[in-house]
Design a protein that fits this description.
glycoprotein, GlcNAc_6-SO4ase, alpha/beta, disordered N terminus, single chain, hydrolase, Sulfatase_N, 10-stranded mixed β-sheet, 512 residues, globular, 14 helices, 4-stranded antiparallel β-sheet
């Protein structure tokens, strides 16, 4: 009798999982920090490949429109270009998590839209670089739209950090089993998946998991500290090349790089991969939890990063912020209901498309999302049989972040530069301010990058990626002036666009 009762319980549990009430799809967005695509940043992600790439669609031409954490994340949340959400860099004065942001764009994120569509919403991890700081209102502020909030105060850390747990301040130390942030995000997310299944079975959920990896300070979990010790950063393409025909910030980099700079970036390369192994584990455990609770087949899982990265390209030791492919290209993978499996798509997509996509899913998948969003829904691309008409260009823009007090050991540097690394090579400056048109028309085989800098030089850079994939040769002085004129006019149009006009305006026809 005991055995029969036990068998009945098992069968009843299985039956319950198989007959879950139908509702709108769940959505899980996994966002990494500074994970590149160009330099092999996806190579360590064996579980991501097995569980997401093989079971979903990989987009090979995914870009950030602003290659820096806070403005890029603001674009992800709002679906807007930087000039429309007004977050331009990682500072409070640059509108990163500022009170102005909270009173404007933060009220119109995809979380708010999903919450209004009756989704239960969960957030865990890094939000915006200045979130929770005193000048941003402190950690008691819980951004609108989130039912369950576990937000890191400030920038990425792995140990010795503070989080806002639904507005309550919680401090963590340096013990791996109780404090390692990537694992805490895993435990929190898995727990919420199970709790949601138990308590909100008739309600869809949106979950955003935002990891610190592979951002510095690159503290790997103990079990991964000995991995990849024999590897070095890639030496091909633009590695250790000079920037002689580029903006002055690139020209100031020391070439060839000093040995200590190369050792520094090689060490960073290895440690970045080490930290990513815990993210790989996170993905596997999230997928397992969804499967164990019978929710996997009705859940979209989106995997991406906020920006790319460089390690020695054009002799810049480490960072992002630049207009080149290594800083702009990011991974993007999706699996879920109706998503084609083990395929790739080449259409150019931008992180401003994430918010419209999530909003579209939450609204029934009929192409509806807030008109304030500059991006488009990616749902039409999730089925490989569909070949919708698609954009052929988009905007890239960045407002430089400088300092009036250069590092004291860098006496030769002028005030205004910032983020100076080994050998006083500086990665940013107040006038590292640029806007670009990135054209990628696969049908007509046009693959260009046109950029204008706001500085005393009014410097212009133009690259033909078809013949120069590593952007070694600036062809601004040799190309037909009519091409420059057309690109300039297109840049003006995109730089002024908002909502519908970002999606509807047509680019000029270009031939080189």
């Amino acid at each position: 009798m005991l055995c029969l009762c036990f068998l009945f319980v098992i069968l009843h549990a299985v039956s319950s999982e198989e007959n879950l009430p139908s509702h709108a799809p769940n959505i899980v967005l996994i966002l990494t920090d500074d994970q590149d695509k160009i330099l092999g940043g996806m190579t360590p992600m064996v579980k991501v490949k097995e569980l997401l790439q093989n079971e979903g669609t990989t987009f090979t031409n995914m870009f950030t429109p602003t290659p820096l954490c806070c403005p890029s994340r603001s674009s992800i949340l709002t679906g807007r270009y930087s000039h429309n959400h007004n977050t331009v860099n990682n500072s409070i004065s640059g509108n990163c998590a500022s009170l102005s942001w909270q009173n404007s764009a933060e009220k119109e994120t995809f979380a708010v839209f999903a919450h209004n569509a009756k989704y239960k919403t969960y957030f865990a991890g890094k939000y915006l670089n200045k979130y929770g700081k005193k000048e941003a209102g402190g950690p008691s502020h819980v951004p609108p739209g989130w039912n369950d909030w576990f937000g890191l105060v400030g920038n990425s850390k792995y140990y010795n950090f503070t989080v806002s747990d639904n507005g309550a301040v919680v401090k963590h130390g340096d013990a791996y089993h109780s404090d390692y942030l990537t694992d805490l995000l895993t435990y929190r997310s898995v727990k919420n998946i199970h709790k949601h299944r138990e308590n909100h079975v008739d309600q869809p959920f949106l979950m955003m998991i935002s990891t610190p990896a592979p951002h510095g300070p690159w503290n790997a979990a103990p079990q991964y500290e000995e991995k990849f010790l024999n590897l070095s950063a890639p030496r091909d393409g633009s590695f250790n090349k000079d920037g002689k025909n580029k903006h002055w910030l690139l020209r100031q980099a020391k070439n060839p790089m000093a040995e200590d700079s190369i050792n520094y970036l090689d060490n960073a390369f290895r440690k970045r991969w080490q930290t990513l192994l815990s993210v790989d584990d996170l993905v596997a455990k999230v997928v397992t939890a969804l499967n164990d609770t019978g929710q996997l087949d009705n859940t979209y899982i989106i995997y991406t990063s906020d920006n790319g990265y460089h390690l020695g390209q054009f002799s810049l030791p480490i960072d992002k912020r630049q207009l080149y492919e290594f800083d702009l290209r990011i991974p993007f993978i999706v699996r879920g209901p109706g998503v084609s499996k083990n395929v790739t798509r080449v259409e150019p997509i931008v992180n401003i498309d994430i918010a419209p996509t999530i909003s579209d899913i939450a609204n029934g998948g009929e192409g509806k999302f807030p008109a304030s969003m500059d991006g488009v829904s990616l749902l039409p691309l999730f089925n490989s049989d569909k070949k919708p008409k698609w954009r052929t260009d988009f905007l890239v823009e960045y407002h430089g972040e400088g300092s009036n007090n250069p590092r004291p050991e860098c006496t030769e540097m002028d005030a205004g530069v910032s983020h100076c690394f080994p050998d006083c090579v500086c990665e940013d400056a107040f006038n590292n301010t640029y806007s670009c048109v990135r054209t990628l028309d696969t049908l007509n085989k046009v693959d260009l990058m046109y950029c204008e800098f706001t500085d005393s030089e009014t410097f212009v850079e133009l690259y033909n990626h078809t013949t120069d994939p590593h952007q070694l040769n600036n062809i601004r002085s040799t190309v037909d002036p009519q091409v420059l004129g057309k690109m300039n006019q297109r840049l003006i149009a995109l730089g002024d666009c908002s909502g519908t006009t970002c999606r509807s305006s047509l680019p000029p026809k270009l031939t080189l």
